[in-house]
Design a protein that fits this description.
Length: 296
């Protein structure tokens, strides 16, 4: 098991990273931004020291191989990471600014001509036997939700990987570098509900009185399934909201689930794996063969 040493722990997660030297990285972060920093490709013992005003908070991820940093105050701060295997150092410089002082130009896509919507919208999300992965293009993280009978699992793409059973209360988390699936406290989990973002976005956010005001035609999305990728011809809606934002939705006609959502010109969130016939479980603690079996 890796032994990671943390000298001073105040953590952060966010913005624009600029490599300055091989061992130095700069992050420009707006207040509240979060960024994940991995100082070394491989190191078994890492120490962290923070220098300068404490304008950031940070905490370890993956047993200290990475840290998550949050911008808390305007100013500059640095974190020095030392790999105690070979006494090498890496430095991350954090520049935190107030986004309200920076002119923000919100680009908005041009709304196409609307069309008469002749379909019938009904939100009927999957309630069992699904494996759904959602990619946040902006953050480059994937969220995965799985339900197979009483077994449920969730992965946030940032180090949280959990598996539980809603009937027995048994609960596990995943340790990739040590024991694989590891027992956790019984019942300390939140069962998955019948819907979750972004699948429920159009259902929750848009009035359904006259969908012809928003419908701009059909568009095909390609998603992954249990066997191979397949295409879904989605309803596409373009909605102007009273607050000035515009949001585009790509909706699965078969169940009303949102498969892609994009606000203004921001990076979209999109479903990349959409298996609604997940009838054979192929991962989890039941497949564990021994204490140190780290297979997922």
């Amino acid at each position: 098991m890796k032994k990671i040493l943390f000298t001073l722990m105040i953590l952060c997660f966010a913005g624009l990273a600029i490599a300055q030297e091989a061992n130095e990285t700069e992050f420009k972060m707006a207040l509240g931004d979060t960024v994940v920093w991995e100082p070394f490709e491989k190191c078994d013992a890492i120490g962290y020291n923070i220098k300068g005003p404490k304008v950031i908070n940070f905490k370890p991820l993956h047993f200290g191989e990475k840290i998550q940093v949050i911008a808390k105050k305007i100013g500059n701060s640095s974190i020095i990471a030392t790999c105690q295997d070979n006494d090498t150092e890496a430095v991350a410089n954090f520049i935190v600014y107030d986004p309200n002082e920076v002119p923000v130009v919100i680009e908005k896509p041009v709304k196409p001509a609307t069309k008469t919507f002749t379909g019938t919208y009904k939100f009927a999300p999957p309630t069992d036997n699904y494996f759904v992965t959602i990619n946040d293009i902006g953050s480059k993280f994937n969220e995965t939700y799985m339900k197979h009978g009483d077994d449920e699992a969730y992965n946030d793409g940032q180090g949280i990987d959990r598996f539980w059973n809603i009937k027995t209360g048994k609960n596990w988390y995943y340790r990739p570098d040590a024991q694989g699936w590891t027992d956790d406290v019984d019942w300390e989990f939140e069962p998955l509900t019948e819907s979750f973002p972004i699948l429920n976005a159009f259902a929750n956010e848009v009035e359904k009185d006259n969908l012809s005001n928003y419908y701009v035609g059909n568009e095909t999305l390609t998603v992954g399934g249990s066997d191979k990728p397949f295409d879904i011809e989605c309803w596409k809606f373009f909605v102007d909201f009273p607050d000035g934002n515009v949001i585009q939705y790509w909706v699965d006609p078969s169940n009303g689930c949102t498969l892609k959502r994009q606000m203004n010109a921001d990076p979209a969130k999109i479903v990349t794996v959409y298996d609604l016939k997940y009838t054979k479980l192929h991962f989890g603690p039941s497949f564990k063969k021994g204490l140190h079996d780290t297979r997922r």
